Amino acid sequence: MNAAVEVEGKLVKVTPGDELNIYTANDLRDELTERLHGVSQVSVDLAQVSEMDSAGYQWLVAVKNLGPRYTVSFVKLSEPVKDFLSLLGVLSQFDGSASEAEEDA
After folding, report:
1. What is the spatial distance between Cα 76 and Cα 82, in angstroms, rounded to a whole number?
2. Which CATH number covers residue 70?
3. Residue numbers of the domain that contains 66
4. Of 7, 55, 82, 88, which sits most exposed with the smallest number of CB within 10 A?
5. Where on the phi/psi map is residue 67: left (φ > 0), alpha (ψ -120 to 50), or beta?
6. Please, is 91 exposed, middle or buried when counting C-beta atoms within 10 Å of its C-beta (0-12, 13-18, 19+)?
7. Burial class (CB in 10 A: 0-12, 13-18, 19+), 43
8. Do 81 and 47 contact (CB within 8 A), yes or no?
């Protein structure tokens, strides 16, 4: 897994790597959970993702629903991610999206 989860001040930057699927979603969840203490923003960069399945989608939904404590954004959606989310009819919920916490801030 060539994923990266890095903390920069109050921001956690997540780069899942080339696969966002059943084989990587649990590890990403664990790494992100370990780094949420003391942060207020989560940014997920999906530019490198070339393979995604329903477990990857579930991870995206879980991140999106982190709650009002965090501002969540999804950036640089790759074509495979856009195609997958379009197929599910939810692309508009993730394309350049931010959680309600950001809108309220």
Report:
1. 10
2. 3.30.750.24
3. 4-104
4. 88
5. left
6. middle
7. middle
8. no
pLDDT tier, 96 (very low <50, low <70, confident <90, very high otherwise) = low
Q: What is the dihedral of CA 56, 87, 43, 62, to 10 degrees?
A: -50
Q: If you count them, how many residues does the chain have?
A: 105
The Cα 28–Cα 5 span in angstroms is 8
In the chain, DSSP assigns E strands to: 4-8, 11-15, 19-20, 41-45, 51-52, 71-75
- Looking at the structure of the chain, the number of domains it has is 1
pTM for this prediction: 0.85
Q: Are 28 and 16 in contact (CB under 8 A)?
A: yes
Using CA of residue 41, residue 46, residue 51, residue 53, what is the dihedral sign? positive
pLDDT digits (tens, 9 = 90+) for 40-57: 999 999 999 999 999 999
DSSP 3-state assignment of 26?
Answer: helix
